Amino acid sequence: MADIIQLLPDHVANQIAAGEVVQRPASVVKELLENAIDAGALNIKLIIKDAGKTLVQVIDNGKGMSVTDARLSFERHATSKIKNADDLFLLNTKGFRGEALASIAAIAHVELKTKQAKDDIGSSITIAGSEVESQEAIVTPNGTAIAVKNLFFNIPARRNFLKSNTVELRHIVDEFHRVALAHPDISFSMFNNGSESYNLPVSNYRQRIVNIFGNKTNEKLVPVDEDTEVLKISGFVGKPEYAKKTRGEQYFFVNNRFIKSAYLNHAIASAFDGLLKSGTHASYFLNLTVNPQTIDINIHPTKTEIKFDDEHTLYALLRSAVKHSLGQFNIAPVLDFERDATLDTPYDYKALKPNTPGVEVDRSFNPFKEETPFSTPKPSQSYTTNYKKEDTASWENLYVGLETKENDHLDFSNIEFEKEESTASIFNDDNQVEQKHTTYQLHNKYIVSTIKSGMLIMDQHRAHQRVLYEDFLKHITVKESFSQQLLFPLQLHFTTQEVAIIKTLKDDLESTGFAFSSLTDTLVEITGVPVSVPESEVSIILEQLISDVENDVPDSHFSATDLLAKSMAKSLAIKTGQSLEKDEQEHLVNKLFACKEPNVSPTNRVTFVTMSVDELDKKFI
User: Fold this and answer.
1) If phi over 0 gives left and psi between -120 and 50 gives alpha, with beta otherwise, what is residue 98?
2) Which tens digit of pLDDT belongs to each residue from 42-52?
3) Which of 25, 286, 388, 469 could serve as 569's disulfide partner, Cβ 3.0–4.6 Å?
């Protein structure tokens, strides 16, 4: 029997490795930015076209590479970071595997220009599909400029699996944020399709956060600082009142490397226990510094997961540090059993001297002196008064004219009584005097109603979603909606990327009843909202809408409209646990069965189930 095992060609092996390292354009951005940081760059520029599908370019002013290093950097497992296996546990750099450039060159057209400061000229290399097309000497600035074009050009199946440009751009921006937050001592800039999206100068950590997420973020931050032998913690957490429904602003950095850790995230959540509303998540930007020998960062191809030697100690320290900061800055209540708050001196009176109270005594007062009915003790000089008692001898005059004759009687026919005005319910018919209720609410979640064949059980949240979804869809498509004007404009602060999403949906939002007076880079001013939307829910609706759009943006206009209607219906629908009156229950049942598709919610979940009398009879057999 012939041998069947053979070594794979290099270009096939590189494509397999690329499947682990390069999953989408954002993976290329991450690898190239980390290489620029390892090169000692102080100024890094990121250029994106078509969400990275056409071009991802990173330009830095780092130390550059020689001609030999430039060519060798595209070989598999070629790296300057490690020399033996022991170096894997003493890593202080970003990239170390030597797979990034080789994997990228296997699935894209790559053009590299680099020059060291000591050299007069630099070198340029062009590679397509792991094959070197040209290498020549050129004149170029100090540092490295690498352009990755036509990603997945030789693997069309992988390219077809990419999401829409908006989704891919969001992933690129996320990677850009992670790298920029970890290195506030480096200036970053990002250009998307020719326009500048971010320009982040060198600053401190707090200012870097504000530059990325907007000026409004500054007042939301609570500093965290703890230094122990095991762990050093620095950074900020968000105040509980600014918690969001999404987990977008949650960043852990271990030795300046972004990581994801559900275990450490739980430590933050437990520190905020009792301070957050249900369904919201706190923001945090925390830097953890540990001994490199106590962590293993080589357990995941993207290096976003880290294994710690002693996770329990890190959990306890992190939780305690966050709770201490919240209590120190009066964010969380502090228990002090030795202090009585009622005895505290008001701030305005702390510098004042107390006045000694004066006491006056009637020295002529004799408690054993017998009093006569017509004499009273003489008061002291201090309490002398000119009070004179009025004569009450003519009190009978108050009742003159009130005598009634025997034939007199009171006429009550013209007496009017004040009564609270009664308004009919919005769900009642004006002509209907008495209505027979046939619904019942079960556990503030289900509505039970009788039907001819038996019983109907309806999920109130999903049913109301279906009703609102069809209403919003009709308003958006027909362009007819009612809007209530606000007495004072509502100002909401978002990031630059979030405002860009709102701008793309502005026309559809106006069709539902929203009215915008201005849309700047980080500020959205609203002067009108749909009739069914309370003013307090506007920020929640827009945050949920932005989250839905970022995670799943369809390409066609109709699908985007459909997504907008779904998102608003989900935010405004009656929640589970909300008590409904009888009239509201029946109105919801009637509105549901007036819909075109009452059987399922907008997310294709069942809205109601029925049970016939025969099925009930079988339960009692």
Assistant:
1) left
2) 999 999 999 99
3) 469
181 and 212 part of one domain: no
* Structural domains of the chain, count: 3
Co-location of 176 and 220 in the same domain? no
291, pLDDT greater than 80: yes
Same domain, 194 and 216: no
Looking at the structure, tell me whether residues 492 and 550 fall in a common domain.
yes
Q: What is the pLDDT of residues 491-522, one digit of tens each?
A: 888 888 888 888 888 887 888 888 898 888 78
Using the 8-state DSSP alphabet, how is residue 381 labeled?
A: G
322 CB-near residues (< 8 Å, 6+ apart)? 224, 237, 267, 268, 271, 272, 284
273 is a domain residue: yes
Are residues 134 and 227 both part of a single domain?
no
Both 153 and 248 in a single domain?
A: no
Of the candidates 82, 76, 97, 85, the one whose C-alpha atom is nearest the C-alpha of residue 16 is 76
Q: In this structure, are 167 and 212 located in the same domain? A: no
- Residue 513 domain-assigned (yes or no): yes
* Dihedral sign of CA atoms 591, 595, 598, 602 in order: negative
Helix (H) / strand (E) element for 37: namely: helix 25-38
What lies within 8 Å, CB to CB, of 581 at 6+ separation is: 425
Rounded to 5°, the CA angle 229-234-235 comes to 165
Does 431 reside within a domain? no
So what's the pLDDT on residue 29?
93
Question: 375-406 burial, b if ≥16 CB within 10 A, otherwise e?
Answer: eeeeeeeeeeeeeeeeeeeeeeeeeeeeeeee
Same domain, 129 and 275: no
The residue ranking higher by pLDDT, 17 or 261, is 261
What is the residue whose two structure tokens read 């009093």? 371
Using an 8 Å Cβ cutoff, are 553 and 567 in contact? no
Give the full edge-to-edge strand order of the sheet including 608-612.
439-442, 446-451, 454-459, 608-612
pTM above 0.70, yes or no: no
Domain-embedded: residue 23:
yes
State both tokens at 216: 């409004």
**Nearest by Cα to 285 from 204, 363, 382, 365:** 204
560-604: per-residue pLDDT in tens? 677 778 888 888 888 888 888 888 888 999 999 899 889 999 888
Domain-ending residue, one of 312, 328, 344: 328
Question: Of the residues 168, 200, 232, which one is the last residue of a structural domain?
Answer: 200
Nearest to 103 by CA among 152, 70, 37: 152
Q: Which domain holds residue 254?
A: 207-328
Q: Using one digit for the tens of pLDDT, what is the confidence trace for 135-174?
A: 999 999 999 999 999 998 888 888 888 888 888 888 999 9
- List the CATH number of the domain containing 98: 3.30.565.10
